[in-house]
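so i finally got all the pieces together for this one. its two components total, 225 residues if u count the protein bits. some of the lines might not be protein, just check the labels. i wanna see the whole assembly predicted at once instead of chain by chain like last time, that was a mess tbh
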Amino acid sequence: EVQLVQSGAEVKKPGESLKISCKGSGDTSSSYWITWVRQMPGQGLEFMGIIYPRDSETRYSPPFQGRVTFSVDKAIDTAYLQWASLKASDTAIYYCATQGTSWSPIDSWGQGTLVSVSS
Amino acid sequence: EIVLTQSPATLSVSPGERATLSCRTSQSDSSNLAWYQQKPGQAPRLLIYGASIRATGIPARFSGSGSGTEFTLTISSLQSEDFAVYFCQQYKNWPPTFGQGTTVDI
């Protein structure tokens, strides 16, 4: 199993850029996908997309295509979620998680990163 | 995109009682359905996958059933630690989607 630890909370202004991280530990040599999930304040879960650390194959859920970028650094078992220009509506908790294949349930979750965007 | 509709939105029960949560999908998804539990301030946790298979370490009081478009999560005898929000998710069709959640409270 892979354990995930995410970077700390961020407070940003609209228009700013941001990159948050998700570091894996444990059985990182196994085959798994990194999943990103958004949870807006007081709301449910939204599936943003997935990235395969071994080759960086990426799939975005349509609402997030073009709005965010996933990346990985295999050397340090770390995945990233980044924005080029934040909006107030990006305020949310962002979870990274793992799933065994691109069509599997999510089996392990990071603790979440709170991103607050306000002028 | 497959839409998942959970009911009820809120379920008020007493400790020791049985809780039954429903998840309906807009298209038949065979058994590729999962249930997650989320407590306040915590990340979600996988409870059930494949509609009826308990994840590692999940107590037997949690059970899942259903197929096609109708799925159920049953908690046989609610414990104090089970009061939380429960989400269903279909994970086979792209993009994977979640239901809006059911809050189980006292």
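Chain B touches chain A at residues 1, 32, 34, 36, 38, 43-46, 49, 55, 87, 89, 91-92, 94-101 (CB under 8 Å).
The mean pLDDT of chain B is 95.
anyway lmk what u think
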